[in-house]
Design brief:
Blueprint (H helix, E strand, L loop, with lengths): L4 H21 L3 H22 L10 H13 L12
């Protein structure tokens, strides 16, 4: 099993920025708000950069051969091309 280190890193950064913002919000509200906004932007950029789309599995050779056999067994529809007169 592959340990999701990227997810853990993002989670730890979220905790860090949240705690920093909470620590400063009482005494310096604008500093706490700034930390929260900058932290959100950093987390958003990192999440975007870490994203890896899941690709569907490629068909095996036997799957490709089965589809080819099925297409050969059933006659395909022929397309009639329209000619412009």
């Amino acid at each position: 099993m592959n340990f999701p280190t990227r997810t853990v890193n993002l989670f730890l950064l979220w905790i860090l920025f949240s705690l920093l913002a909470i620590a400063y919000i009482g005494q310096h509200p604008y500093l706490g708000l700034g930390i929260a906004i900058v932290g959100g932007i950093i987390l958003g950029v990192m999440s975007f950069l870490y994203y890896e789309p899941e690709l569907p599995p490629e068909p095996s050779q036997s799957d490709v051969e089965e589809v080819a056999e099925e297409e050969a067994a059933t006659p395909g529809e022929t397309r009639e091309t329209e000619t412009g007169d």
